[in-house]
Fold this sequence. Notes:
mainly alpha, Methane Monooxygenase Hydroxylase, Chain G, domain 1
Amino acid sequence: xxxxxxxxxxxxxxxxxxxxxxxxxxxxxxxxxxxxxxxxxxxxxxxxxxxxxxxxxxxxxxxxxxxxxxxxxxxxxxxxxxxxxxxxxxxxxxxxxxxxxxxxxxxxxxxxxxxxxxxxxxxxxxxxxxxxxxxxxxxxxxxxxxxxxxxxxxxxxxxxxxxxxxxxxxxxxxxxxxxxxxxxxxxxxxxxxxxxxxxxxxxxx
Length: 205
């Protein structure tokens, strides 16, 4: 029974890493869409999101089964609850990536305003996933620190779009929504790193 418990934990860990890799893949599709105007990647992005959703459901089911049928010790219990929170963040990253991809078809100019923000959140998500796979405190801290740069870039995009708004209302509003989704992706990456940091340094009782 104990051997099966740890095998399931290992399966969950592998699935979560795969889920993170899919999120990064989705951001790669998105980068191609925004920088190369390759809208054909939207179908691939939608398929990628479905894979993320299936993995989230599978991981959540396995976690719930462990909680209901086993009696995890405190450390394992923390790991299971942390996993549930992390997969929720990963699902939101994937969902918001798809939302950006869908909106990107409706903008015809000004994409350059979003490129730096996209690069920052892509790097931030990669670091967040690395912090999980390595359990390194410094990687988690670097992820969290990047959130300030994302917030500054988001504020800059808003200012630039406010100046352009009278000339291209629909496109500017769509770009603003995209920038807001990007900021949200950064928030979820920060959340993952924060959870990892808490796992590395558990609170004293």
